[in-house]
Amino acid sequence: MPEQPVTATSPEHPTHWVLTLSCPDRPGIVHAVTGVLAAHDGNITESQQFGSPTSGRFFLRVQVASGADRAELESALAPVAEQFDMTWSLDVVGRAVPTVIMVSTAAHCLNDLLFRQRSGALPIDVVAVVGNHEALRPLAEFYGVPFHHVPVTTATKADAEARLLGIVEESGAELVVLARYMQILSDELCTALSGRVINIHHSFLPSFKGARPYHQAHDRGVKLIGATSHYVTGDLDEGPIIEQEVERVDHTRHPSDLVGIGQDVEARTLARAVRWHAEHRVLLDGKRTVVFR
Amino acid sequence: MPEQPVTATSPEHPTHWVLTLSCPDRPGIVHAVTGVLAAHDGNITESQQFGSPTSGRFFLRVQVASGADRAELESALAPVAEQFDMTWSLDVVGRAVPTVIMVSTAAHCLNDLLFRQRSGALPIDVVAVVGNHEALRPLAEFYGVPFHHVPVTTATKADAEARLLGIVEESGAELVVLARYMQILSDELCTALSGRVINIHHSFLPSFKGARPYHQAHDRGVKLIGATSHYVTGDLDEGPIIEQEVERVDHTRHPSDLVGIGQDVEARTLARAVRWHAEHRVLLDGKRTVVFR
Amino acid sequence: MPEQPVTATSPEHPTHWVLTLSCPDRPGIVHAVTGVLAAHDGNITESQQFGSPTSGRFFLRVQVASGADRAELESALAPVAEQFDMTWSLDVVGRAVPTVIMVSTAAHCLNDLLFRQRSGALPIDVVAVVGNHEALRPLAEFYGVPFHHVPVTTATKADAEARLLGIVEESGAELVVLARYMQILSDELCTALSGRVINIHHSFLPSFKGARPYHQAHDRGVKLIGATSHYVTGDLDEGPIIEQEVERVDHTRHPSDLVGIGQDVEARTLARAVRWHAEHRVLLDGKRTVVFR
Amino acid sequence: MPEQPVTATSPEHPTHWVLTLSCPDRPGIVHAVTGVLAAHDGNITESQQFGSPTSGRFFLRVQVASGADRAELESALAPVAEQFDMTWSLDVVGRAVPTVIMVSTAAHCLNDLLFRQRSGALPIDVVAVVGNHEALRPLAEFYGVPFHHVPVTTATKADAEARLLGIVEESGAELVVLARYMQILSDELCTALSGRVINIHHSFLPSFKGARPYHQAHDRGVKLIGATSHYVTGDLDEGPIIEQEVERVDHTRHPSDLVGIGQDVEARTLARAVRWHAEHRVLLDGKRTVVFR
C-alpha cells in the first residue's frame, strides 16, 4: 500500500476513517485495536476480519467515525502496530484514489471506469489516461481527463515505460489500471509498482492464459466464459486474483461473439476490483487476496 | 432464540463458541465484548457486525475458541449484556440443532435436508418428520428418522396443531422447518413457535403470494422464477426473508415445467436458510433479517 | 412491428434476411415456408420456432441467405402467409433500427446504449435523444446524436407528447426506448406507438410496481434486487416482459446502495431487450413474449 | 448414439417422436426433412438447428407428433438421410434411457440422480449401480436399484472393466454415468463405450485438471469454483464438454469447504448433462458439443 496523504479533520466534524491491517495471528488483536478506537470516541460502522489458516496471518478492516485527526490516531495506533508486528494503513472513507488508466484500442473498460467515476460509483480520481494508440483520446477528453499517447515498440519499450513511470509519479497516482492494455509490462516496472497495478484478463484464469483466450475457449467448447481481475506481478497472468465473473455461452457463439459477450464481463469484473481496491477492501495474503466485500 | 442447553467443556480442550447479540447501537460494544473474551483466553476465529441505520440496533456474531466453560462465559458476559441492554445467545459451534421437518407429499426439500444432514453439510439433528400425508414415511425412515402422520382437516386442525406442538416439545426440537408443508399454521401456533419456524415459499416474494405461484408466474410471463425462505409469522408470506434465489426460464416453459425447475431452487434456498439459522447467522432486525454469511 | 423499408439486393451478392411470423398453429407451416425459401436458393443459417399451448399460436424466426430481392421474397411468401393467416415481417439481418431514446437525468442507461451502438454491439441507429431535462445533452452530443429538450409539466403534457410524436415520425424512428425516462406516457401515446416502446423498470416485476421500488425492496428486506424491461402499454408496469435480471444484496445495503447496484442491472437488462427487439427476436404472444435468443 | 429399440405405435394414438441428425451443411435439408414429416401428418412441436461454421456440419433436432410407426418413418427418412449423408437417430420423446451409474464413496451425485429419476425429472431408467466400494449399496437399494460391488486394484483392473462391460451389456444400458467414480477408465473401455459415458469433473475445466482440483483452486485463490460434465474419451479430462456451472467462493473458504460447496454444483451440472443427453439434446461436433437446450 502506498503512503496516504495527511487529511485534515477537526473535533467538531468527526471523520470517517478506514483502517486496514494484517499481522501474525494471535489473541488480543481486535481488543487492542478497538481499545485505541474507543479511546478516541470512535464509533465503528463496519468491521471485517479474517484469520488465514494457510499463512497464519490475521487481517482486519475497520471503518470508524472519530473526531480525532490523523496524527492523533496514528500515534495512538503505532505502539499497538509495533506490538503485533502489523502492516497497516489509515485512510479517509471515500477519498478518491488518484489513478492512471492504461489502454490500447478497446474502449469498453475505459468507458465503464470513467462513467462510474463521474456518477460517483467509484472512489477514484482518474488523473491520466495513457494509450499506446491514439484511439481513445476523445473518450478520455470527453470526461476531462488528460490523454498521453505513449507508443511502444520493442526498440522503445524501455523509454516508454520510463515515461509511464514519470506520468504516474508526476500525477501522484497511487493506482494504475490496465484497462485492456495490450502490452506486457517489464519485470522492472512490475516491481516498481508492486501491489498498485490491476489488470483485467479476458478469461477465467487459470484457464486460457496468454493470447487470444476467447479463441482458446471456443476451441475447447466451454459453456461459460469469464474474466479475471488481478494484481500484476512479473509472472504473467499469475498475480493474485481479486475478482472473477462468468457468463453463459453456447455452441452458436463464434469467437467474435465471445469477444463481445466478454466485454461486458470484463468491464464489470474490472470495475469491482478497482472499487474494492480503492475502498481498501483488498489485502494480500501471499499469492491470494482477502477481499472484505 | 430458544434456550440453549448447557454444554460441558474443560480447560484442557478449548471449546469453539458462537456468541450472537443485538442491542441499541452506541460506541464501545465491540471493545467491551472482546475484552470479556480476551480475559478468558478467547481466540476470535470469525467476527461480523452490523449497525442498522433504520432500526438503530447493533448486531454481532463472534466465533471464539476458549477454554472457559459456559457458566464462566455467561457470568462474565452478563454484566456487559445488561449494561448495553443486549439480547444474546451462546452456543457451541457446529452443535446439531434439534429440528422437526413438516411435509405434505412433495419430497424434494425433505430429501435434500435429510441428505445434507447425513453428509455433514447441515448442523441439524432431524428428530422427527411430521406429514399430513403418509407419502414421505419411507424416505424419513430410510434416514432413520421417526415419521408422524398428523392429518389435518378443518374440523381437526386445532387437535392436529396441538399434537404437532406436543411433538416439538417432547422431541426437544428448537427449529421447525416447513418443507413444502401445504397447510397454513394458525396464529396461535405461529406465536407459540415465533422465530423458530422456517418456511419455503415457491416464488420470489413479494411477487406471487398465495396459491399456485408458478401458474401466476407463467401468466405474467416472467423470465426468472424464484423461491423465498422466510420465518413464519401470523401474516402469511410476509415473515422476515432469510434467503432468495432465482432461475432463468423462457417462453417454452409450461407451468408444470416451472414447478420442476422451481424444485431445485426451493431445495437450495431452504437448505441455505436452515444452515444459516442453525449456525446462528440469522438475526432479526424488525421485519428484516441480518444474515452474517 | 412497423413497416420495413425496401432493401436493395442483387443475385450476385446474396442478402442475409430475417423472417419472423406468427399464425394459428397447424401442421405444415415450416414445410411451406422452407419450401418458398428453398425455391429461392435460400440457405437457412438460424431458425427457431415455438407453438404456444396457451394461445394456440405458432411463432417462427428464420435467418436465411438468399440472392432473391425483397420483392421476389415478399411476393413468394404472400400466398403462404395468406393461407396460414400469418402476421409476418421481413428485414435484413443487422440493419440498424432507427431509434429514439428518451431520458430524464439518470445517465447510466443512455451511456450504455450509445456506447454499445458505437462499438457495434447493438443494431440500432439512435436518431435522437429526447430529454425532459437538459442534463444529458453533452453525453448525446459526444456521440453525435441530436438532443431535444422537451420539458413536461401537467399543463404542457399534451403538447410535449405531440412534439415527441413529431420527433419520432420525422426521424423515421421505428423504436422508442425509455431509458429511465421519469414521465408516464399517456394512453393515447401508448396506443399510437404500440409494440414500439421499450421501458426499463427498476424492480423485478411484478414486485414493487410504481415509485421508489428500491426503497420498497429495502423495506421488505429482499435478498435479490432486479430490473425488468418490458413493452409499454397503457397499463403501467404491466406490459409484456422482455427480459429480467437480478443481483444479490444483503442487509448492509441502504436504499441508496440499491439504487447504485441496480443501475448496472438496469443497463444490462435494457440493452439485452433492445438488442433482441432490434434483431427481431421478440414476438408478442398476448401479454407474454416469445424471445428467440 | 446406440441403437434404439423399436417402439410400437398406432395410427389412432400418435406418438411423440424425437429425430436428431447431423450432416454436411447445404441448402434444402430442413425442407426435405419437414417434407417427410408433413407427409406422415407430423405436427412439429419443437425444432432446433445449427450450422457449425468451424466444422461445416449441420445439426437438427425435431420433436414431432405423428401417427406413423417407427418402420414407416424410418423407411421414409432413409432416402433423405442417404441423400444428405446424415448420421441420425429416432426415438420416442420421454423414453427412459437404460443407465448404469458408477460410484465410489461420495453419495451426492448418485442421490441426486436417483431422486430425480423417481420424481420424474430425469428420463433415465437406472438399471444398475456399480461401485468399487460398498458404501452406497443402501442408497441404491432404497431406490430399488441393483448394486454391484466391483472393486478395482491395479492387478484386477482388466477383470473389473470386463465385468463392468458385462453389466452394461446384460442390462441393456445405453448410457453410463460416472457419478464421482474415482477410477480412470482404460482406453479400451473408453473406445468400447464411446459417446455413451458421461463424467462429472469437479473443476471448471480446463482449469485444474487431474487430482484434488479444489485444493488446486484454493492455492490459486480463485473466486469462483465450478464443475464440468463431459463425455469421456481416452484423453483424460479432455472429452467434449456438455455443461459447466460455477459458484462464488471467497477467501474464508478452506479446501474442505470448497469440496462441500462443489458437491451442489457437481450434482446440478451432472443432472443437467444427463437429462440433455437422455432427451437427445446433445450432438457431437468434433471435440465440441451442440446442446439444443
Automatic annotation (TrEMBL), chains A, B, C, D:
GO MF term (any one): formyltetrahydrofolate deformylase activity
Database matches in InterPro entries: ACT-like_dom_sf (IPR045865), ACT_dom (IPR002912), Formyl-FH4-Hydrolase_C (IPR041729), Formyl_transf_N (IPR002376), Formyl_transf_N_sf (IPR036477), PurU (IPR004810), PurU_ACT (IPR044074)
Domain ACT: 18-95
Keyword Hydrolase: yes
Keyword Hydrolase: yes
GO biological process, one term: 'de novo' IMP biosynthetic process
Enzyme Commission number: 3.5.1.10
Listed SUPFAM superfamilies: ACT-like, Formyltransferase
Active site per the UniProt annotation: D237
Domain of life: Bacteria
Reaction(s) catalysed (UniProt annotation): (6R)-10-formyltetrahydrofolate + H2O = (6S)-5,6,7,8-tetrahydrofolate + formate + H(+)
Pathway it works in: Purine metabolism; IMP biosynthesis via de novo pathway; formate from 10-formyl-5,6,7,8-tetrahydrofolate: step 1/1
Function: Catalyzes the hydrolysis of 10-formyltetrahydrofolate (formyl-FH4) to formate and tetrahydrofolate (FH4).
Family statement drawn from the similarity comment of this UniProt entry: Belongs to the PurU family.
Name the record gives this protein: Formyltetrahydrofolate deformylase
Gene, per the UniProt record: purU
